[in-house]
Amino acid sequence: MDKSVDDLARAVAPVTDGASVMIGGFGSSGIPFGLIDALLEQGATGLTVISNNAGAGETGIAKLLKAGRVAKVICSYPRTPGSIWFEQRFEAGEVELEVVPQGTLAERIRAAGAGLGGFLTPTAYGTRLAEGKETRVIDGRGYVLEAPLPADFALIRADRGDKWGNLNFHATARNFNPVMAMAATHAIVEVRELSDAPLDPETVVTPGIFVQGVVEYGVRP
Amino acid sequence: MTVATMNALDDAQLAARVAQDIPDGSYVNLGIGKPTHVSGYVPDGREVIYHSENGILGVGPTPAPGTEDPELIDASKRYVTAAPGAAYFEHSDSFAMMRGGHIDIAVLGAYQVAENGDLANWATLDETYPPAVGGAMDLVVGVPTIFVMMRHVNRDGSPKLLKRCTYPLTGLGVVSRVYTDLAVLDVTPEGFRLVELTPGNSLDAVQAVTEARILT
Q1: Contacts of B141 in chain A (CB under 8 A)
Q2: Residue A7 burial (CB count, 10 A)
Q3: Most A-contacting residue of B91, B95, B102, B129 (CB-CB within 10 A), to test interface
Q4: Domains of chain A, with CATH numbers?
Q5: CB A175 within 8 A of CB B54
Q6: How far apart are CA B196 and CA B194, in angstroms?
Q7: Which of A62, B7, B32, B193 has the most CB atoms around its CB within 10 Å?
Q8: Number of domains within chain B
Q9: What do you get for the CA distance between the two ends of chain B, in Å?
Q10: Which residues face A135 on adjacent strands?
């Protein structure tokens, strides 16, 4: 089995207009900058982007927003220093926003990857973010029913990978990347180093079964 | 009397005051902004392990210039180091630590706190401004002790310690204790109870800038 792909352009070629695309990363750490640039070049538009943030400055997701490729953002924290392109598109009514508490976002993504029909969480109970959602009281505590959140594609950043798609990560660049790889129909990974030798199974964080394409992109942010 | 003429702690003094109440051996999450400064004032001899929701337990000090690792940051997106005994993990594990009651204390900022412990710290009433919740709602439902650290009043002098919050809530009845520049108050079933006043202020003066009743 060989999931390695020669270049970034080929890796993102399957992304279609209107697709839902998970993008790993938190702040500037663990973002697949190479794949995002390749997706911009590829031209897919009308995308639903699922990520913790909505980009900052002129890099990463901000580039997709600036180019008008994003129809909807599902995230926990769209407003970061320098998130000017998100704010501009949002204020102009060009981008729909769904704000999800960060832990609920991670768990909805994990639930999709794990084949669950949703879960009950105390997070957001009694708040505006639970409006319209089914709730339940268990042992005197209120919970909100949250649905799984799958995606057509995931763009993932990892440290090292092998041709079987096994991955490990560096420091806090791990963040959403492993759960997003699980939850997407087609997970595309840029790795700092594509190892010729198989990764030591003891060090594998994301097993290759969750990965459909892996491409080497050695540039560190 | 207005706050301008009262004895108020500055940000560093407030961080130092909160730090006094972080016990040895605790796992602590410091919210973005002012709470991140608390770790710098924890008294020597206490080992405190800091959790940051982007996937590190054991956040260490700021790295020396030139040694920053762009893939090693905290939830405030600042460069950090890994302290001895640190661990990295992915996001759903990180929030299991928070929601699952494994973190002992969280220190958060706030727009408003109500006498029933309700917290508002993620959105205002300005609908044109995109809201950003982050991990605050997960923290407050899962962490048993929630310390709020904030100015006692808004810039315009209006109170932040209220009978009921007017901004959208982050969590219901979740706040344990509030540290402001003017006072420390516990949230009790009866309401705010005074722990201490910043020296030099009278209870009457602090009550005058507090909408909710302060119990003694």
Answers
A1: 121-123, 125
A2: 13
A3: B91
A4: 16-99+151-216 (3.40.1080.10)
A5: yes
A6: 6
A7: A62
A8: 1
A9: 21
A10: A144
Tokens of A89: 């598109």
* Structure tokens that stand for A168 in this block: 């490990």
Residue that is written with structure tokens 């964080």 in the block: A205
pLDDT digits (tens, 9 = 90+) for A137-186: 999 999 999 999 999 999 999 999 999 999 999 999 999 999 999 999 99
Specify the CATH number for the domain of residue B192: 3.40.1080.10
- The length of chain B, given as a count of residues: 216
The 10s digit of each residue's pLDDT in A53-70 is: 999 889 999 999 999 999
Q: Sign of torsion, CA B106 B112 B115 B119?
A: negative
As beta bridge partners, residue B87 has: B57
Using the Cβ of A148 and the Cβ atoms of chain B, whether some distance falls under 8 Å is answered with no
- Asked if residues B110 and B78 have their Cβ atoms less than 8 Å apart, the reply is no
Q: What is the pTM of this model?
A: 0.96
Query: Could you list the residue range(s) of the whole structural domain that residue B45 is in?
Result: 3-215
Strand partners, B119: B113, B171
Q: Count CB-CB contacts under 10 A for residue A115.
A: 8
* ipTM of the complex, rounded to two decimals: 0.95
Q: Which amino acid appears at position B47 of this protein?
A: E
